[in-house]
Specification:
The protein is of the alpha/beta class. The protein contains nine helices and 13 strands.
């Protein structure tokens, strides 16, 4: 049963919009790189989600995609699967090339012919951390459920050597057997349904970080154009209420609150109100303050 279905990372569209607003080419390069990483991650997770969808009637499993919980800080799991007897966390890695794991320090190394080796943070440490955090979260809710984890490489472009790891490393075709095996090795657990209900109640919606701090830009680094909601190109005013995109066929009205919400995802709110009012110089003061009040609800 799909409890929380696959959705593309909402950060992608936020970053694409920010990219269209920025003047700084240096920051735009960083954003392009981050968008590529997020889209690669989404591609891998969507492959896994489609495969898990075919398992939903095989055994009694409950599938949650992209679950964020709070336990001494936020932690975010690609897939959280509850069976009748246990919980399984899947961490998906869509990384092409020859993949090797190292210990002391734990790292993932990617080798591609003709290119220098690349180092990544080890998904082993990620999955171990998530298991520990979820164990503490369960303990705080008085659930006693076995938790297992695995790292999934869903595409054939990943050639993985897992000899030097103690973590379960799975190919796409191995996921179902792994779930079945862990479920069979444990007895039915009455806490599982309570856990499922609590996850539905407590899972946190996606939160954007303050991007202005992360990418080190200020309001004056941006343009204040009304951007197309579809392709993020500049909108051109055709009449009092009608705007046309300069690039695609989109036609619509300008919704000031949506623009304010966008800027509020970039900067701390308490530093922004007066600066924004001056920045959005083509918006009347009365309209600005009326729409600003809506963002405070």
């Amino acid at each position: 049963m799909i409890q929380k279905e696959f959705r593309s990372n909402p950060k992608t569209q936020i970053l694409k919009r920010l990219y269209a607003r920025l003047h700084s080419e240096e920051i735009k390069v960083r954003i392009q790189q981050d968008i590529a990483k997020i889209e690669a991650g989404d591609f891998g997770e969507e492959i896994v989600a489609k495969r898990l969808n075919t398992y939903k009637n095989a055994i009694d499993i409950h599938i949650f995609h992209d679950v964020m919980l709070y336990q001494n800080g936020l932690f975010q799991m690609d897939f959280l699967i509850a069976t009748s007897s246990c919980i399984i966390i899947l961490e998906v890695k869509n990384i092409s090339g020859h993949i090797y794991f190292t210990q002391n320090p734990q790292q993932l190394i990617r080798k591609i012919k003709g290119q220098p080796d690349q180092k990544f943070r080890s998904p082993e440490t990620q999955i171990q951390k998530y298991i520990k955090q979820l164990e503490i979260w369960n303990y705080s809710h008085q659930y006693n459920i076995p938790i297992y984890g695995a790292v999934v490489f869903p595409t054939l472009s990943s050639i993985v050597n897992s000899d030097n790891t103690m973590t379960h490393i799975l190919d796409l075709d191995e996921i179902e057997q792994f779930i079945y095996k862990q479920n069979q090795e444990n007895t039915e657990n009455t806490d599982v349904q309570k856990f499922i209900n609590r996850i539905k109640e407590k899972a946190i919606d996606y939160r954007i970080n303050t991007l202005g701090e992360y990418y080190n830009f200020k309001l004056y680094h941006l343009n204040s154009d009304f951007l197309c909601p579809k392709c993020h190109s500049k909108m051109l005013k055709k009449s009092r209420r009608k705007w046309n995109c300069s690039n695609c066929t989109y036609t619509g009205q300008r919704i000031i609150k949506e623009e304010l919400d966008e800027y509020l995802s970039y900067f701390h709110q308490d530093m922004l109100k007066q600066d924004l009012q001056k920045f959005m110089k083509d918006v009347s003061k009365s309209t600005f303050y009326r729409e600003w009040k809506k963002t405070q609800k």
